Amino acid sequence: MAVGGRFLAALVLLAALLAGCGAARGAASGGRPAVANPGGPVVEAGGTLLAEPGAGATSYVDLIRGATHAVEVNSYLLTDHRVVAALIADARRGVRVRAIVAGNPYRDAAAMSQEQAEFRGSGVAIKTAPARFEGRYVFDHAKYVVADPGQSDQAAILGSSNLDYSGLGGGNREYDWKTNSPAVVAALDAVFRADWGGTKAGKVPRRTLVVSPGAQPALLGLIDHARRRLWIESEEMGDVPQVLAAIEARARAGVQVEVVLPRSLSSTDRGNAAALKAAGAKVVLLDRPYPHAKLIVADDRVFLGSENFSRSSLDRNREVGIVLGGGPAGLAAAAFRKDFAAGQPLNAANAGDHAPSGYLPSGRQLYGKTEAEVRQSLGNPERTYSTSYHGRPEMAWVYPDQRVYFGADAQVVYVSHQPG
User: Fold this and answer.
1) Architecture of the domain made up of 216-345
2) Cα–Cα distances in angstroms (integers) from residue 404 to residues 264, 272, 401, in the given order
């Protein structure tokens, strides 16, 4: 069930009332982070929760059009024509516009050339991410926009939405946060400037934001904080042992643990979800809207951002998120409840299967390959295990952030890898 129309409008209005600033650009907001979370900061700041589908591109376009000095964008995908047009219009009226995009966007090899072509000659300066975030199974996966950092009208949006059609109203469930907090804007600006210059972001932005590489301690601290409720909506539930163990521990301790995941999970992610269920969590699978979200509600705190539950996302990628206290947790919880109610419970019958995805995640180069050919391309797997899909036996080979499945004829039938 989507958060759209009247429901979304009510959320935005309530956020404005609670925060005292809503989506306004000029309102004062200190946003001083208080390091109360053992793993990382908790930010108390005014702002507006943006839930997709429903919010669309309007908040992003308004933020960009309102800039007077500078706009900084880091987005895994940057192809939404409304956002692109607003950035180009800014550059043509003298605003300094810079954008960082992923050089190897997964499953969308044409995106980078499209981005380069659209901005060519426009005055928008565009770069691909630093090389350390462009390797095999490593991505610049961050999603944020900063307007006029350091100025009186500074503002920013960060969250899970790619700046493409799917992310901005096209059918994904996303959670973003719009704020004019000087602390948040300065931290995002610091990450952007470091990546633009090819240097390390360092510790300072991490006093305000949840930044990958190295996001795992902050998420563990948030999970451990939960005493009443731990609600998670995520695109993935990958092999991150410490995080999975922490969630299971909260469920066994009597915390109300509820999880929303996409129906099109990989075999491994379904197995991990089944383990959470066995520990006492309630897990549902949702078709629509597609849960591209990366959301954790832990009592009175909420995390939203670009980090997935995967080793690559938490430990190797460039990712940016934030832990917010106060009103945002209630707003995000209301949206979560809609999705949880619309999902179908995970059951033992499907817990070990990988769902058909409609595509072959590493491209078609592995489909139909033999074990020897896969070993030649990817090397030896970390481990192997037997599984089945709809009663058909399969052998799974485990690589970092990827599973390769062989059918009874020892040829590749499926590859699971969705950093998204």
Assistant:
1) 2-Layer Sandwich (3.30)
2) 16, 17, 10
